Amino acid sequence: MPKRNPTVPKHIACVMDGNGRWAEQRGLARIEGHKMGEHSLFEAVEGAIELGVEWLTVYAFSTENWKRPPDEVKFLIGFNDDILLRRQDELNEMGVQIRFVGRNDWRVPKRLVNRMNEASALTKGNKKLKFTIAFNYGGRAEIADAVKSLMASGVSADKVNERMIARHLYDPDMPEVDLMIRTSGEFRTSNFLLWHLAYSEMWFTDTLWPDFTRAHMADAVADFQQRGRRYGGVTA
Ligand code: FPP
Q1: What pLDDT was estimated at residue 231?
Q2: Which of 17, 90, 121, 187 has the most neighbouring CB atoms within 10 Å?
């Protein structure tokens, strides 16, 4: 029997999936599902704090999400901006440190970049939870960008190792993910945090993201604590 793991995961990553289906099931426009997802996002943040999780990372917008209908893309960009504007003070008071990962390319509006910088600066001294928003994020893009940055640093090929690549990722301080949660009955990683998910435990639920609560997160953590993690080794 592998040893159980009584610890709380240090880093949880969430794929907030199922907003569109939640809305469609109710005959509503897809964006109504995203709007409802804001409540679940705060459930996840508060749940993580209650459980003693140190890092929570959410997939807010992927490098592939630009392929969605232009109206939905526009909505999602504005929505991220709007949530930060409306709720950054509240997150700050909760002791949440807001961080971002993703590719800062020409498609991300300057206004949103400024908002992200403002939210990071406002909350940078907070210690309760490191809450990272992955925006215009793709796992393969992150690894490609890390390699590009590593090569630009002038390192010779024979010196390249895993630790060095990790130091050139978008956030070199981000620890590996211990537990990935994906809602809506989909069993994929969808290019999320590829590097950090290497040894992550996965937890899936049929619940659609707008119905996700802190109780689901507690269930996921309880399940995590029943699992034996071997990292490719064997258990004594
Ligand atoms: C996936 O559902 C969800 C998204 C693409 C975006 C979710 C974004 C938020 C909840 C807001 C995040 C904001 C901040 C500031 C972190 P889907 O549309 O793929 O659902 P479907 O699979 O049912 O179509």
Answers
A1: 76
A2: 17
| Residue whose CA lies nearest to ligand 1 atom number 12 | 60
Which ligand 1 atom sits closest to the C-alpha of 135? Answer: 16
- Beta-strand (E) ranges in the chain? 11-15, 55-62, 96-101, 129-137, 179-182, 201-204
101 lines ligand 1 (CB under 6 A): no
Calculate how far, in angstroms, residue 49's C-alpha sits from the geometric centre of ligand 1. 22
Residue whose CA is at the smallest distance from ligand 1 atom 13: 80
The residues annotated as belonging to the active site are 17, 65
| pLDDT tens per residue, range 16-56 | 999 999 999 999 999 999 999 999 999 999 999 999 999 99
Domains of the chain by start residue, with CATH: 11-137+175-224 (3.40.1180.10)
Angle at 122 between CA 118 and CA 125, to 5 degrees: 140
CA-30 nearest atom, ligand 1 = 18
State the Cα–Cα distance between residues 63 and 136, nearest whole angstrom.
5
Give the C-alpha separation, 234 to 25, whole Å. 46
17 lines ligand 1 (CB under 6 A): yes
State how far the Cα of 22 lies from the Cα of 34, in Å rounded to an integer: 9
